[in-house]
Specification:
The chain has about 375 residues and is mostly helical. It has one domain. Helix content is about 65%, strand content about 0%.
């Protein structure tokens, strides 16, 4: 897996560097040509290997690493574990985006290796490897090579499932808590944790383990409210309560229009928008979501109760996240893809399909890398 991961890393880096002059988005891309290499060499390497990936959320994370969280500017929409891991590198003089990328690459490699190890707990090495390949080559998985938090989140989430398999419930709870410090979907790990504890009939002994998982996200939100933003105005309605306590009242600074709706309601709005005014962003998101839902349906029989609960929660929340009338489903396939048990279920129930899936996925991965660098699609 390491060799394949390195190959995809190299090829996506070359692709991003080659495409970036077509639409340079950062000051470094505009000021320094890609070819020929120019002194100082570290700056040119940053321009070639890092700057083309500085898009969308990556810029927000760089802002947090540089200036910290600020009240009212939207930064508190982003959970703290990922930028916190990059901050020690910046204190040593590493540029923020370089530090974030190094953390992402390390976590991304750890994610792929840990996923394969999780699969090997019950599958033969060949099927475990094919499941890991299908997971790593899903089109939005290029985000593991970008300055995004998915690698950190997935490494903790996969570790949680691995610990549950071995009945190490305190470790699983701690990893669930870390995942919930990287992305809000980490809270959904409470579902397989509770399912596993209930299956063991641990009763009240389950409470401490669940509290271990809850303490990190509760601590972050308490700090956000008490030290950064101040007490929120709860307002009226479910979304006002949700954004005040779980996300940020200033999330509109990142995505101007966003709300959680019933999944079927949000999907109907997206389909209506696509029918009235088709665009590449929404078209890609709907197509990838349909593909992932198909894989999920095929994998359902091969997943256990905890995996199904986590997958359903992740997919339902992704389908519920409505991001306005123009681009109603920004980030939809990325938010769904973190339901990684789907690929384990495929390996158990549809192993032959894993011969075909990576061949279909790979062109999509490189296509999405290109339009991400061109700033033409929001991952």
């Amino acid at each position: 897996m390491i060799a394949l991961w390195l190959l995809v890393l190299i090829l996506t880096r070359i692709e991003a560097a080659w495409i970036s002059p077509l639409r340079p988005m950062t000051a470094l891309e505009r000021e320094m040509p890609l070819w020929p290499p120019m002194p100082p060499l570290p700056t040119w390497l940053e321009r070639a290997l890092i700057a083309p990936w500085a898009r969308w959320d990556a810029l927000w994370y760089a802002r947090i690493v540089t200036h910290g969280y600020q009240a009212g500017d939207g930064t508190t929409q982003f959970y703290p574990l990922y930028p916190l891991l990059a901050m020690p590198l910046t204190r040593l003089g590493v540029a923020p985006l370089v530090a974030l990328t190094l953390v992402s690459l390390a976590a991304g490699l750890g994610t792929v290796l840990w996923f394969e190890r999780l699969a090997q707990e019950e599958l033969d090495p060949i099927r475990a490897r094919r499941a890991a390949i299908a997971f790593m080559l899903f089109p939005v998985a290029f985000i593991l090579f970008a300055p995004y938090a998915e690698g950190v989140f997935l490494m903790a989430a996969i570790g949680c499932f691995h610990a549950l398999r071995r009945e190490r419930y305190t470790l699983a709870s701690g990893l669930a808590g870390l995942a919930a410090l990287a992305r809000p979907q980490g809270l959904f790990l409470l579902l397989p944790l509770a399912w596993a504890l209930g299956r063991e009939r641990r009763g009240l002994r389950s409470v401490p383990a669940l509290l271990v998982a809850l303490l990190p996200p509760l601590g972050w939100h308490a700090y956000r409210v008490l030290a950064i933003e101040g007490p929120p105005a709860l307002g009226e309605g479910f979304n006002a309560f949700l954004y005040a306590l779980l996300f940020s009242p200033h999330a509109h600074q990142v995505v101007p229009v966003q709300a959680f709706r019933w999944p079927w309601e949000a999907l109907a709005l997206a389909l209506r928008r696509f029918g009235e005014a088709p665009d590449i962003d929404l078209g890609i998101n709907l197509m990838l979501a349909a593909g992932f839902l198909t894989l999920m349906a095929l994998a359902w029989k091969g997943m256990d109760g905890g995996e199904r609960l986590y997958t359903l929660a992740v997919v339902a929340s992704a389908l519920s996240y409505h991001t306005g009338p123009v681009h109603p489903y920004m980030g939809l396939p990325r938010h769904m893809w973190v339901a990684f048990p789907v690929f384990l279920g495929l390996a158990r129930s549809r192993p032959r399909l894993l011969y075909v899936v990576p061949m279909v996925e790979t062109p999509g991965l490189f296509f999405l890398t290109g339009i991400y660098v061109l700033h033409a699609w929001v991952p």
